[in-house]
Amino acid sequence: PLSVGRGLRVSAHERILQEIESTDTACVGPTLRSVYDDQPNAHKRFMEKLDARIRNHDREIEKMCNFHHQGFVDAITELLKVRADAEKLMVQVTDTNRRLQDAGREVTAQMEEVIRCRVQQRNMATTVEKLQLCIPGQALDIHTHIYYAALKTMEQLENIYIPRVSHYRFCQIMAETLPKLREEIKDISMSDLKDFLESIRKHSDKIGETAMRQAQQHRTFNSAVQKQASMGFPKPLYTLNGRTSTQQNGLDTEEGADEDDADEEVLTAQDLVDFSPVYRCLHIYTVLGDRETFENYYRKQRKKQARLVLQPQSNMHETVEGYRKYFNQIVGFFVVEDHILHATQGLVTRAFTDELWNMALSKIIAVLRTHSSYCSDPDLVLELKNLIVIFADTLQGYGFPVNRLFDLLFEIRDQYNETLLKKWALVFREIFELDNYSPIPVENEEEYRSVISRFPFHDAEIEKQQFPKKLPMSQSVPQIYIQVKEFIYASLKFSESLHRSSTEIDDMLRKSTNLLLTRTLSGCLQNLIKKPHIGLTELVQIIINTTHLEQACKYLEDFITNITNVSPETVHTTRLYGLSTFKDARHAAEGEIYTKLNQKIDEFIQLADYEWGMAESDGRASGYLMDLINFLRSTFQVFTHLPGKVAQTACMSACKHLATSLMQMLLDTELKQISMGAIQQFNLDVIQCELFASSEPVPGFQGDTLQLAFIDLRQLLDLFMVWDWSTYLADYGQPTSKYLRVNPSTALALLEKMKDTGKKNNIFSQFRKNDRDKQKLIETVVKQLRSLVNGMSQHS
Fold first, then answer.
1. Are 512 and 420 in contact (CB under 8 A)?
2. What's the distance, Cα to Cα, between the start and end of the chain in Å?
3. Which residue has the higher pLDDT, 567 or 536?
4. 389 burial class (0-12, 13-18, 19+ CB within 10 angstroms)?
5. What is the DSSP letter of 516?
6. Residue 223: is its pLDDT beyond 90?
7. Which residue intervals are annotated with compositional bias (Acidic residues) in the record (predicted)?
8. Residue 668, SS3 per DSSP
9. DSSP character at residue 238
């Protein structure tokens, strides 16, 4: 029972503490009274409970303070920092406010002055309006050109004042006179309109010139802004007077620009021409109910003027000024029509101006297509293109479609490229004519750097050599490379301002460059190679030059890529055909080398003077042949700079041609007789040829490949020198035959020449004296050879 009672008291004390914590302070009294109403010692136990609860709350408060202490300290620290910044900001705000107030004080004063002037202006206008209402009447004077006022006065007279006094005779006269006055006003206004049309015909040139100049300035400004933005410069800040802050600081973007031109007032068609006769006449005809007649007349006259404007001068194509005047007149005409279209209601319509423009556009295109075809100067064609672009931009700004003009520019671009190709053909010819066709000598590092700065040449071995040294190509190579780049720049000038993408411009440049390489430069190279004064040394240098130009084609690709910023990996990117151009030129030069080498061999062969009836050889080779071999040896030394295959082919071709020429000399039908001594002499010459072939005049031949060129001659001469007819006849037709390359007809022809010589010159007399059977053997061999030849012909 005691424990139960104690537990009840404890729970009662907890309840009382909870009430104290949760209830309002005013209600604590009854709660505390319940503690004293209990047993006498109950308040002591309650106090103990209360002290324990207070200590518990103190510990919780202490924990919470410890937890938030660091954050509180940091917050106070930040607050102290902010206070310092806030003080600085306050100073800046105060200073800014003060300067703003000072700056705005003058503006405020000017605004108050403007408001005061506006009030005065409004009061003056109201006064004038009221005064006009008080005027009793207006003078009817059509000679002061106040036609509309005169018509209104007549209308008032007719409808208001004359009916009031119509019974007076003078009023009747006035009423009868008014229609005549109206017709007189119509005639006078129509005369003014005709004067205006004549004046506008004269002023169209000036109007067009002004409009095109403004369009050009606008385009130049836009391109400058785009260039400035692409270079990372900030956009210009405009001030009240229209100049940029950069210009005010003395950094004018247009260096050297005339200050008067910068401040020149922008003129419009209305500033140059007084359009009041048109407005006045239109208003009068409208008031008189005859507007349609006026509209038809005006449109008819303007169509006639349009046809006159579109007629070019016969010599327009000779100078750019002729084209400029032609464009100025057309622009002036349509600027006037555009102004009339927007300044009047219905005098001309958009459909009418579009009809005029379409008619004019067809005529303009036909005229430009005809006259531009007469232009042979690329600079004039380029200036014409710039004029067409400005002309198109000007009229496009007035809402006229100009796509067909840009299509025409593509036709003119092809013509421009043709004129460029003709111009560069002359440049290339001059370069080739002035070239010395010898390697470029460089004496020092400066000269070497000068050459490689103009042409992309890199050779590790040459760079290691000491100065002075020679670069393999001749001086025409860097000049050609520079001129190709100049051509690309010239072609790029036409592509500017055509409103085409970088990819299209890249394609245009590559196609025009391909034409330059494959047609112009290739044609110049082919003509150069065929020129008679170009010798073997020059041809060798041309092959070396074309090799280096071919290697430089990839740098031209990179050059175009850097200009257009179009990656060469793009799907539709056109490749340069320079590789095929220079390969074709090199092949042509190689063929010409072979031809000239053979011609030179023929010249030496023509110097041969064999004594075909000599009894025996003098034991040494012929002089002409030794000269020929020395020539070939020195020539093939020059070929060391050529690609190995070219030099080998030239050497093999020369040896084959020499062997063929010698064989033809033996078998010449005009040569009727030949002695054994001549055969021996001929054999000595062939031995010299074989020695030359075995000396490897050009490196790279395997084994006795070059000597095989003389194998036919060697076997034929061996057959006659050894007189080994039994072996020849026995092994004929066998793959292992010692005389496999000797044709029976060849042996027969040569043997018959010797047989005839034996009969007449008694060469075989010793055989007949010693052994007459040998002569019979010759006859037998001849018969057998003839049978072999006949058998071959029948078989074939």
1. yes
2. 151
3. 536
4. buried
5. I
6. no
7. 252-261
8. coil
9. B
Q: Rounded CA gap, 737 and 255, in Å?
A: 92
CA-wise closest residue to 324 among 384, 375, 413: 384
Vertex 77, ends 72 and 80: CA angle to 5°? Answer: 125
Q: Tell how strand 440-442 and strand 469-471 pair up.
A: antiparallel
DSSP-derived secondary structure for 396-437: HHTT---HHHHHHHHHHHHHHHHHHHHHHHHHHHHHHHH---
Residues facing residue 470 across a β-bridge? 441
Q: How far apart are CA 763 and CA 768, in angstroms?
A: 10
- Taking a C-beta distance cutoff of 8 angstroms, is the pair 644, 703 a contact? no
Between 2-16, 185-199, 290-304, 526-540, the lowest mean confidence (pLDDT) is in: 2-16
What sections of 169-290 are H helices per DSSP? Answer: 169-230, 245-248, 259-262, 269-272, 276-287
Dihedral angle, C-alpha 655, 658, 660, 664, nearest 10 °:
-170
> In the chain, what are the helix, strand and coil shares in percent, each to the nearest 5?
75, 0, 25
DSSP letter (8 states) at residue 615: S
Write a three-state SS string for 50-86: HHHHHHHHHHHHHHHHHHHHHHHHHHHHHHHHHHHHH
Within 671-771, where are the H helices? 676-694, 711-722, 725-731, 744-761, 765-770
What's the token pair of residue 499? 């409103």
Number of H helices, E strands in the chain: 31, 2
Instruction: Give the model confidence (pLDDT) of 238-273 as tens digits.
Output: 332 333 333 333 334 333 334 344 444 556 666 777
- Torsional sign, CA 743, 748, 753, 759: positive
Eight-state DSSP code of residue 159: I
**H or E element that contains 470:** strand 469-471
Asked if 706 and 693 count as a contact pair (C-beta separation under 8 A), the reply is: yes
pTM of this prediction?
A: 0.63
Cα-based torsion angle of the residue sequence 531, 535, 537, 538 in order, rounded to the nearest 10 degrees: -10
Burial of 206 (0-12, 13-18, 19+ CB in 10 A): middle
**Angle at the Cα of 263 from the Cα atoms of 259 and 264, rounded to 5 degrees:** 110
Express each pLDDT in 699-731 by its tens digit. Answer: 888 878 888 999 999 999 998 888 888 888 888
Q: State residue 773's pLDDT score.
A: 62
Closest by Cα among 408, 271, 267, 390 to 330: 390
Separation between Cα atoms, residue 200 and residue 334, nearest integer Å: 11
Q: Which residue, 451, 478, 484, 458, is CA-closest to 581?
A: 484
